[in-house]
Amino acid sequence: MSSAVRKPMTVPEFLAWEERQETRFEFDGFAPVAMTGGTAAHELIGGTLRALLRQHLAGRPCRVFGPTMKVEVAGRIRYPDAFVYCTPVARTETVITDPVVVFEVLSPGTSGTDRIEKLREYQATPSIQRYVILEQDAVAATAFERQGAFWDARPLMAADVLRMPEIGVELALAEIYADVDLEPVAAPE
Questions:
Q1: Higher pLDDT, 166 or 15
Q2: Proportion of the chain above pLDDT 70, given as a percent
Q3: DSSP H helix total and E strand total for the chain
Q4: Is residue 138 assigned to a domain?
Q5: Helices (H), 24-159
Q6: For residues 153 and 58, what is the distance between their CA atoms, to the nearest angstrom?
Q7: Are 68 and 35 in contact (CB under 8 A)?
Q8: Could you tell me the residue range of the domain that residue 56 belongs to?
Q9: Is residue 5, in this structure, part of any structural domain at all?
Q10: CA-to-CA distance for 52 and 32, rounded, in angstroms?
């Protein structure tokens, strides 16, 4: 019995293919992966985060995008829930290659991808200085910060402030979750 071995798509092939699709797909370095819809909490967290970032970045060279703009990282195409970039971009651009800070709001179905695969991809992208994973079911996050060749991970709880010196912004975590009815995660005593 013979089976056909499928050749992986390239990033340009994927981008050309995706342009003809009605729904969004990410590219895992081999093949398209369909994007699923999110929950109300997911959208509220992402929407509030993007609004806060826009407000804090007003008048500065950095801008926030997401969730409909693509980033290319480690030979893959991703749609982060939010990201900040600080270089000029043509108005017709569809892919950003040099994000500085990237945010993902966890969903039950994407938790493994966000915590493992995307973490590795974002770490392999030199422009990315911080990757923030926001929990959807609690006022909590994990912030990964580039420290030279290494990355530090810091858990954040409701009373904490997300500090992002690479873009000159600090956000109270509770502020990001202001529109979502969740119980805060208490810090250990």
A1: 166
A2: 93
A3: 5, 13
A4: yes
A5: 40-57, 111-112, 118-123
A6: 28
A7: no
A8: 38-176
A9: no
A10: 31
Q: Does the pLDDT value for residue 1 go beyond 90? A: no
Could you list the beta-strand ranges (E) of 58-160: 63-65, 70-73, 76-78, 82-85, 95-96, 99-105, 130-134, 140-147, 150-157
In 3D, which of 144, 62, 53 has the Cα closest to residue 96? Answer: 62
Q: Span 86-107, mean pLDDT?
A: 94
Do the domain assignments include residue 80? yes
Q: Are 170 and 162 in contact (CB under 8 A)?
A: yes
Cα–Cα distance between 51 and 7 in angstroms, integer?
41
CA dist 68 → 11, 32, 75, 122, 158 (Å): 17, 16, 19, 18, 28
Q: How confident is the model at residue 116 (pLDDT cuts 50, 70, 90)?
A: confident
Q: Is the Cβ–Cβ distance between 30 and 9 less than 8 Å?
A: yes
Instruction: Estimate the share of the chain in helix, then strand, then coil, as percent rounded to the nearest 5.
Output: 25, 30, 45
Whether 58 is in a domain gets the answer yes
What is the C-alpha to C-alpha distance for residues 151 and 134, in angstroms, rounded to an integer? Answer: 17
Q: Using the 8-state DSSP alphabet, how is residue 134 labeled?
A: E
Total number of domains constituting the chain: 1
**d(C-alpha 72, C-alpha 41), whole Å:** 26
- Identify the CATH number of the domain in which residue 72 sits: 3.90.1570.10
